[in-house]
Amino acid sequence: MLPWTQSAFSFGWIVVMGFLVTTACSLVGNYLILRRMALVGDAISHSVLPGLAVAFLLSQSRSSLVMFIGALCAGVLTTVIIEMIHKKTRVKQDSAIGIAFSTLFAIGVILISLFADKVDLDQDCVLYGEIAFVHLEPFATVGGIIMGPPSVVRMACITLLTILVIALFYKELLVSSFDSGLAASMGIRAPVVHYGLMAWLSVVVVSAFESAGAILVIAMLIIPGATASLLSTRLPTILFLSVIHAALSSILGVHLAIWLDCSMAGAMVVMAAALFCLAWVFSPTQGLLQRLMRSRDDFTQLNEIQTLKPHEPQFESLPTA
Amino acid sequence: MAAIRRFLFYLPCLIFLLLVEPVHAAKISEISETHVGEQALRFFTFQDAALRYALIGSVLLGITCGLLGSFIVVRRMALMGDALSHAVLPGVALGFLWNMNKDPVAIFVGATLVGLLGSATVGLITNTTRLKEDSAIGMVLAAFFAVGICMVTMIQHLPKGNKSGVDKFLFGQAAAISEGDVRLMAIVTVLTILLIVVFYKEFLVTSFDAGFAKAAGFPTRLIHHGMMLLLAFAVVISLQAVGVVLVSAMLITPAAAAYLLTDRMNRMLWLSAFFGMAAGVLGSFLSFLSNNLPTGPFMVLACSTIFGLAFLFAPRHGVVARWLRQRSRSARIQRENTLKSLYHVLESRDFHGESVSTHELAEQRRETVEDARQQALQLQHHELVTLHDEGDAILFTPDGWQRACAMVRNHRLWELYLTNAAHFAADHVHEDAEKIEHVLGEEVVLQLEKRLQYANKDPHGRPIPSLHDVRQGARAESGPVELVGYGRED
Lengths: 321, 490
Fold this sequence. Notes:
The complex is a heterodimer of chains A (321) and B (490). Chain A is mostly helical. Helix content of chain A is 79%, strand content 2%. Chain A contains 14 helices and two strands, in the order H-H-H-H-H-E-E-H-H-H-H-H-H-H-H-H. In chain A, strands 1-2 form a two-stranded antiparallel ribbon. In chain A, strand 1 (140-142) and strand 2 (145-148) form a beta hairpin. The N and C termini of chain A lie far apart (71 Å). The model of chain A has no long low-confidence stretch (mean pLDDT 80). Chain B has 490 residues and is mostly helical. Chain B starts with a helix and ends in an 18-residue tail after the last helix. Classes of the chains: A mainly alpha (321), B mainly alpha (490). At the A-B interface, helix 2, helix 4, helix 5, helix 10 and helix 11 of A face helix 4, helix 7, helix 13 and helix 15 of B.
């Protein structure tokens, strides 16, 4: 049974929310993949948890601004810890990432379970997300016009801002991601771009966190970009394709979740991974099928050459080393 | 042979762990009173069987994770552990679906198989696409974990079956470790230790020099997959106590702490297993102090504390040690520069008179008299000069003279080398020589001198002190004089 026949209204909001979250994440994620920092995104999305918990305990309010500041600090702190560990000692970056995020995440979980009665955060909710209840929120009104569920409105703002930020700093991000030498010669300061990206990543992660859960965020930072980069080698095309991927996976994910009666965010990620597998197999330039055909072509060609060889005088006349 | 003998030595200890007597008692989670002191007392008197299981389980998983973690940390595959630990979740759910119960064996088999599938997928993606390993790891992690979450939520929506406990796999609850779990953990620990002892050389060589291992005919791929299998085992037995999300920390953090403390693999393995064990015990103790505290985060925090201490205070690789080393190096450079200035003062007087006044030193260094006095005191402290006339006359000790000569000699030889051999302009060489004079070794200086045909004037026309000049200042009774000063830190 298709969800639309049941209640197009409520599932519409879930799809919209999923699309907004995945779009924002995938746009930022593309740059993470280019900079080989895919797992830093993973780390930050785990480690904003203590930021949220501390911000909540200190301010005793769940206002978005306080949460944002908490998460932003935690996100930047994570990058600083990672850099510190792997620059100051001989521990490699991958170990540093693992140490930093697990420590912060552990602190977050402990804080939440110690103050479970005071904190309105649920550790399971943080992982799964509560995207299924988006449409149940009382609708927000802006200037007397009913806009929709407040988390959707907030996420829409973040997504638009993300697009705006990428459009404004397109050149800086592009150059510093591909060629740090050229970026330096153009007067683009690498640390500024780096920490700016990390800060914006934290903003996106935290705004997606409450309503969509960590798993959707982690997955959507990487999977759309990876899928798109299998299909194209041009950054604008990749950005565009990852948005398409975001839309498809959120629509298909909701269908899957209703069919199997399981977590919405999880199902969206499963569909995103399925789309990746499709691209992996059928990509016209680097798909598995294409590689198989090419290697078979090579093989037959080689066979032909070897069969022809005794009859072809020109091979024998070649000078032998 | 030695390996087998060593193994036979450990075997009795390990068999003992397998024979833990089954005593039926309340689970820790069911204990109602939560007075911290009482709980601590219970913990240390080992009253409850459930507590014993939790403790033995933590120790076992600490050892296994510590040992395997050492290898993945030096192989730079730390995040593979992370990916594997997330990827096993669908396997856990599958094992649970097998007979709708928390059967440790079914869960173990399911999780191991899915974990291996995950690590194989990472390999396949990196081999067949142009995606880098980090993207592949992140993708497998997220995709498998999402499948797992879908399955767990499906299980929770199922109408029947004993569903309690599936969600405990996310953050871990050591109190939920049962007798069967402990047996499984003991078997895995024994297997891990056995394999590491028997194939130590293979693991070591493939971890540090994959190219050499391949050339020497080691089956590197087989060893890689074997290690992945062990890693999957370790992750699966840790799930119950630490939880999916934080298992990777138990793998990475103790091993990284050990990596900072030693340069030898066997010591690293010992240390890392010990740290893992300590963190396991500490974590289960802390989470035992109060009801409903998850165990995993406390274990991880214990690990991180150990790592933090190693990060700061490791004797060679720690931050404090590095800072001290850096400070002593810059203090030495400062001293050597002052000695050089003293030499320059004497040289400007054609070495008439032996003592230099503080004013002359201050003038030479373009500093205040007070600063010059401080530096002279520093030199006196290191027995490089002696101070007379209430600190106003500075006199070289033989050691100080030697070192001053050596610095000037290094500086001028290097300047000459740059102008003659590298064809630098004479007015561009001073800055470079100023830096390198402190690090040139004795051998290099002798070579330089030979290359320059024992020239005795630098590009600015000033005499270069010869080895003979350097030694002249030394006390006659101190026997054969060695050149000191280069690269020595104190």
